[in-house]
Amino acid sequence: MSRTRTIRPASKSDLDAVASLLRRTGLPADDVPTAPAQFFVAIAADDPEPVGASGVELHGDAALLRSVAVTESARGSGHGRALTAAAAEHAATEGVETLYLLTETASDYFESLGFEHCERSDAPEAIRETTQFAELCPASAVCLCAPTVTVLEAAREDGRSNS
Where is the N-acetyltransferase domain (predicted)? Predict the structure, then answer.
């Protein structure tokens, strides 16, 4: 898989492909068409279909980072970090200070970007009331949080060092 990629905001016409990718990677996707999220897609130079996606739901000075997924064949190419950086940058430009997320399988990955474990109850009410928190992610999912700037710097730095 090529490391040459384009990361761009997902258009409405991309949302079906985003939902399909999320389902294939075992992530909740039922709310993708209606979620109040900005999604991003990674397009590899050798594949016109998205090889990765991320999303971020903004809620004042907090945001929910969600749906960071990369197809199995494209993993290890930096797509996940680039997608995380795109979502964090979007959040930062909108004044978001803290990112929250839920994961069952990727704690180590997100910890490498500066996320730390926190209790679900520590998340702001607006985050706890999102469809991801309240309905789609199981109670077994771990809650992580981090300053937006920390995540953005870590994702960008790693992307530069692994190019």
Answer: 5-134
